[in-house]
Amino acid sequence: MVQPCTISGRPFSDRSGSGAETTGTPFALPPPMDMTVTFWGVRGSIACSGPSVAKVGGNTPCVEVRAGTERLILDAGTGLRALGQRMLAEHAASGRGELRATLLFSHLHWDHIQGFPFFPPAYAPHADLRLFGPVAEDGLTTLKDALRGQMTGPWFPVPFGALPSTLRFETVRDSDDLTIGPFDIQMRGLVHPQGSLGYRIEAGGRRLCFATDTEHPERGFDPALLDLARDVDILIYDAQFTTDEYEGRSGPCRRGWGHSTADAATRIARAAGAKKLFLFHHDPGHDDPFIGRIEREARTRFAATWAAREGDTIHV
Length: 316
Ligand SMILES: [Zn+2]
Ligand SMILES: [Zn+2]
Hints:
Blueprint: E1 35-41, E2 62-67, E3 70-74, H1 80-94, E4 99-104, E5 127-133, H2 143-149, E6 166-171, E7 177-180, E8 183-189, E9 197-203, E10 206-211, H3 223-229, E11 234-238, H4 243-246, H5 262-272, E12 276-280, H6 288-299, E13 305-307, E14 313-315
Parallel strand pairs: 3-4, 4-5, 5-6, 10-11, 11-12, 12-13
Antiparallel strand pairs: 1-2, 1-14, 2-3, 7-8, 8-9, 9-10
Helix pairs in contact: 3-5, 5-6
The structure holds zinc ion (ZN) (2 copies).
């Protein structure tokens, strides 16, 4: 939906340049439990490909978080396919019997579920997958309904019911808490059309906030997001639009579309006391040099900022 824009903001400078640095440096002291975060999909709305987006990557949201032997998968965008291939290969090499993983979904929009029909472990009889996600806005459509719905004719040839893996679904909602292996997880509803859940994930004294598909308020901060992001080591935040785009100075006004900006990302990172900020859910229309400029501009406001890039692994 396009809404009228009445508020102006600071425009981004238009410095040229391309590329950007890769992931952050490790902390000086070794963590009590290593937590790693790997970006398998960082793009929002729809996957894109081609040389102009090859450095940042074109797959839609999928983030792997590991601590100890436990693995969490945040969202099932198209990046999930390659993660699933890696999981099967690692599992085959390990010689273990059962392949386990837990998937947490922010919401049910296409770009966050479309990787699931191409997730190889879903087709593996020895895979045991737990899937946590919210119900849709209608209060009835569950995560299982959404995944099953996209695997029906005429859109997809393999019916959901034919998947041989063990799939255990659970509904989660605003303010729920979960413990999965070493992970303590809190969730809060974010500001997005039809809703979205943000996650705060802690393990071994390390803290991560995953807040994609959310829009910043006109003034101040979303208190739910501030709670989730308080003092985290890593904040992954929706920065789909530039401020110019968001406010309608470049194309249609994006206010009310449910996404945020790099400028808002730096403000929430600072206010919450986050140590590192990763800009996420990149617009499919932004090529590598453009995202590089967004990243450099954001660093003038919050130095420890990176644009999330597909394939990067962060040691928290
Ligand atoms: Zn999205
Ligand atoms: Zn969405």
